[in-house]
Amino acid sequence: MLVYLAGGVSGLTVKDAIGWREYVAERLSVAGIAVRDPLRGAEGEQHKLKKLGPAKDSNDDPAMSDKAFFNRDRWDVLTSDVILCNLAAAERVSIGSMFELAFGVMSNKLNIIVLDKHNLHDHVFVRESGVVFYDLNEAIDYILSCSGSGGIEEKESAEKE
């Protein structure tokens, strides 16, 4: 199974944008589930992350152009099995994440969405585009259960034995 890690970037620190993705990757890797991170390679590239947002095209580096980001992210969604879209704690609307969810819907992917209660992304189109959780760990457990690798129930059962 391959999981694409969608979620907001604009307005977040690099640490915040990357941190939850590293956490999810670690949790899923134990079950043999691979992730595709749209921020891969960004750890030392904070200056390039600032380019994400309105009308930031780079003639100097085609790999950092709007077209490159759009096409790579679309390809990542289309070639993944599950889209995990973490919109919890978002302070700005994530237009890129909305596109990624739409790509997922249009290509029959399993969209899993994490929101906070009363999140600015709490909209009928977002809610109807996937399974909504209000806790990242519950969303991860759901992915594990879908993969046959277990989730919270198997973990609790193992602890009782």
Structure described in brief:
By secondary structure, the chain is an alpha/beta fold.
Structural class: alpha/beta
Question: In angstroms, what is the radius of gyration?
Answer: 16 Å
Kindly identify the CATH topology: Rossmann fold
Distance between the termini: 28 Å
How many domains comprise the coordinates? 1
DSSP helical segment count: 7
Helical residue percent band: 40-55%
Largest sheet: 5 strands, parallel
Morphology call: globular
Low-confidence stretches: none
CATH architecture: 3-Layer(aba) Sandwich
> What letter string, H or E per element, gives the SSE order?
EHEHHEHEHEHH
The overall pLDDT average reads: 84
Number of strands: 5
What's the CATH class, please?
Answer: Alpha Beta
Walk me through the structure.
By secondary structure, the protein is an alpha/beta fold. It has one domain: 3-Layer(aba) Sandwich (Rossmann fold), CATH 3.40.50.450. The protein has seven helices and five strands. The protein has helices at residues 14-29, 46-49, 66-78, 95-106, 124-128, 136-147, 152-160, and strands at 2-7, 34-36, 82-86, 110-114, 131-133. A five-stranded parallel β-sheet has the order 2-1-3-4-5, sandwiched between helices. Strand 1, helix 1 and strand 2 (34-36) form a beta-alpha-beta unit. Helix 3 packs parallel to helix 4 (95-106). The longest helix is centred in the N-terminal third of the chain and has 16 residues, at 14-29. The protein is globular, with a radius of gyration of 16 Å. The two termini are 28 Å apart.
